[in-house]
Amino acid sequence: MDKLVIKGKTPLKGEVKISGAKNAAVAILPAALLIDGICTIDNLPNISDVKLLCEIIEELGAKITWTSNNSITIDSRNLCCTNAPLELTRKFRASYYLIGALLGRCHHVQVGMPGGCKLGARPIDQHIKGFEALGATVDVGQGKITANTDKLVGTSIYMDMVSVGATINIMLASVLAEGTTIIDNAAKEPHIVDVANFLNTMGADVRGAGTDVIKINGVSKLSGNISYSVVPDQIEAGTFMLAAVASRGDLIIKNCITKHLECISAKIIEMGAHAEEIDGDAIHVWCDSKTSKANIKTSPYPGFPTDLQSQMGVVLSISDGTSIINESIWESRFQYTDELNKMGAKITAQGKTAIFEGVDNLYGAPVYATDLRAGAALIIAGVCAEGTTEIYNLEHIDRGYENIEEKFKNIGANIERVSE
Ligand code: EPU
Of 34, 72, 77, 78, which is closest to residue 199 (Cα–Cα)? Predict the structure, then answer.
């Protein structure tokens, strides 16, 4: 079992380069199965969720070649299987994108019930509603999902709630459908736009991604031999922005899209830190004094992302005064607060609300990553804390952050991965 050992308390300084977005990459890889051809994908984050997805895609008969640490080619001309390996698909959430992609191309699919971080109930009723509206029959039971259709026909689908996964999955299923599909009340996250751009590069006709109405005009064929670069990760960039603020450091965060970071910049500036955009693809964040309290409510893009809630929780736990976070997406996303309290934070979490009474210092302690973003938050806490922090359950962190200890080390953190 590996652990991260961090000796605080270090202001982070220097430059960090952001990787491609996890939540775009895990949808683009299944989307590549929609073509009977070859595509090259660059700026792919080298993380365990991506490697697992590549393993599943190879089991389906497609050929994957890593051409560098962050680039692959996928040759899906010999795709021969639409029953994805159940155990592998159960290991993470994004395996549900295989449903939309394989239903779209092959009209049949079977996957294991998707797993992923335990953030509360994670229903997929909106995905199913979309597939059924397009003409598929979907069976859920015995830990797996099976979907079949003779043909998919475009239609209007109103999403009962804003769902990233369901929006993308319906886009994947409908690009090759007959006629036009309209997704109303669609999610607007940067990775929705990125997946739509990828599909359009393959010859799809997806319009309006990034707004709450997406229109997909079905095409009869998509073309191969394309190359595409994954959008920079909004959440990784936000993680380093909040690490700069919490540690009272000074970071230049490169290879990001600053437009995607406005909700974070606005909040940290309100709290007394500084953020300045550099040429639209980098951001300078620094903080020279204790930040002041703030209230945060997570919401779909362009609101404050739930995936940065726990990292912001670290900042609030050492800010002046009493702050409140209201988590409106996931019901169990405050598990990290118990871990921060072990480090001296004063947080009371109940249901979807947590109250942070700011303290002067955090202190190193053994702590457990309860999910991916909680793990990132604990690294930030360890960097800020006095003494030594040991973080366990690294498999959560490795699912979504590429080379995280190297990136933190390069900006001054005293952090080591140790095998026990
Ligand atoms: N929901 C339903 N029914 C559905 C789908 C969603 O009730 O059919 C509810 C969920 O329970 C939740 C809300 O709608 O309360 C939003 O869920 P969404 O579908 O948007 O989440 P997701 O697609 O499962 C993705 C990211 C999450 C991120 C959320 C919200 C991926 C693989 N995962 O999940 O990322 O928190 O969107 O932005 O893209 C992470 O990266 O750490 C992570 C958890």
Answer: 34
Contact present, 169 and 212 (Cβ < 8 Å): no
Is the model's pLDDT at 6 over the cut of 70? yes
Q: How far apart are CA 61 and CA 38, in angstroms?
A: 13
Tell whether the torsion through CA atoms of 17, 253, 311 and 367 is positive or negative.
positive
pLDDT at site 79: 87
Q: Is the CB–ligand 1 distance for residue 26 below 6 Å?
A: yes
Q: Which two tokens stand for residue 62?
A: 């497609």
Question: 69: burial class by Cβ within 10 Å (0-12, 13-18, 19+)?
Answer: exposed
Residues near 55 by beta carbon (within 8 Å), at least 6 away in sequence: 88
Mean pLDDT to the nearest integer, 301-315: 98
How far is the centre of ligand 1, averaged over its atoms, from the C-alpha of 165 (Å)?
A: 6
pTM of the model: 0.97
Q: What is the DSSP string of 246-262?
A: HTT-EEEEES--GGGGH
Mean pLDDT for the chain? 95
- Its sign, for the CA torsion 354, 359, 361, 364, is negative
Backbone φ and ψ of 241, nearest 5° = -60, -45
Note whether 380 and 405 are within 8 A (CB): no
42 vs 20: CA distance, rounded Å:
8
310: left (phi over 0), alpha (psi -120 to 50) or beta: alpha
Ligand 1 atom 6: residue of nearest CA: 163
Task: State the average pLDDT over residues 352-362.
Answer: 97
Residue 93 has pLDDT above 90, yes or no: no
Annotation says 117 is catalytic:
yes
Residue 203 pLDDT greater than 70, yes or no? yes
Among residues 400, 406, 330, 403, which one has the least CA distance to residue 53? 400
- Strands ordered across the beta sheet of 274-278: 13-17, 250-254, 282-286, 274-278
117 phi, psi to nearest 5 deg:
-60, 145
Q: Which is higher by pLDDT, 119 or 312?
A: 312
Burial of residue 108 (number of CB atoms within 10 Å: 0-12, 13-18, 19+): middle
Q: Is the CB of 163 under 6 A from ligand 1?
A: yes
DSSP 93: G
Counting every residue written for the chain, the total comes to 420
Q: Whose CA is nearest to atom 33 of ligand 1?
A: 23
Distance CA 52, CA 54 (A): 5
pLDDT for res 142:
87
